[in-house]
Amino acid sequence: MILHPAFSYISRFADGDLRGMTRTWVTRHLARCVRCRATLTAIRGTAADARDAPAPAPSFDLLDRILARRRAGERVILPMADPPPGPWRWRHAARVAAAIAVLLTSGVALRAAQGWGELEFAPARPVRGARLVVQYHEASRFAGAERLTLLGRYRTADDSVPGAAAPAAAVAALVSDGNGTFRGSVQLPEDVVYAAFTVAAVTGGADTRAGQPRWEVLTHRDGRPEPAALAQQRIELIGRLPSLNK
Amino acid sequence: MYRIAYRLTGRPEDAEDVLQDVFLGLPEALRSYAARGSFAGWLHRVAARTALMRLRSARRRRETPLAASRPALPAAGVVDRLAIEAAMASLPEPLRIVFVLREIEGYSHAEIGELLGIRAGASKVRLHRARRALRGLLGSRP
Description:
Helix content of chain A is 36%, strand content 22%. Chain A has helices at 7-14, 20-32, 34-52, 62-71, 88-113, 227-238, and strands spanning 118-122, 131-137, 147-156, 169-176, 181-187, 192-201, 215-218, 220-221, 224-225. Chain A folds into 2 domains: 7-50, no CATH class; 93-238, Immunoglobulin-like (Sandwich). By secondary structure, chain B is mostly helical. The interface between A and B is large, with 41 and 53 residues.
């Protein structure tokens, strides 16, 4: 069975847009396939015919009308600059934001389904260098434990590469109040704008299975997430490591 | 200039309006002519921008060209320049514009991207889609 290149490949070949092995494959195929060669010829032929297709002549009185409008003192401001880039960037940004929201939302749902409990921070909108009061509502997997470890990975505004941030480390101990809640506190370093936390048992190490939950903290200014924090959140999402504990 | 205006707007009356606008606005526009590149190329680009602006404002006003003003496709099997003309006229506007600018007027995808405010890659995609659509409209020919 002969595998013919898709039309888009032949179209891209006609434009000289194909590179590498794909170009070699299409070139060799065209050399022996009459049908695809005809498609290529037709693409080029259509363009040539379109160029040669006669446009209707303008009205014979067009020049008179232009001159009449000029005599009447009419002026037109022509567009001398190209339009700004279309809304695709905003659409793209909206798609990314929606994807992040879906990921985070589904993460919460998964955590709930897997009995991971919930981690809460106060204040909910911390500024840089804030002290966070942490509460962890017991998950079934930590039932009976008296202490848990809060693991954190921090990112500063200067971390530009996924994975460049410091590895997760124990940042606080969470102590059980005997009623299913663990409490503790953690001091955010002054230069940190984004932090990802998870909880692990004190003995036996953290659960390193895939799907381990993470809770994110972004630093805020005037009640809104800092742009640098949002940027680090995106970088973190892109370069998300399999586990916080590696 | 009339040809590119006609190809882009798809209607002789719109093309004439574009041409009138260009000539009426030319004295003012010449002040911003930086004498880089050929004057004909600059004028051509001004005409293209004016035609595209007209299309955009028509879109905002939700104007749709009358079907009668578009040439009808000739009978099946009669494939000639007239058929290509008719097939081009029946392309969706975004595809037709890119096809005209690239295949007829010879603009690069980067230039088309600047004119339309889109990425060069988007221009390439639209060109492939236009070719594919023309292929469907013209039968065995793309």
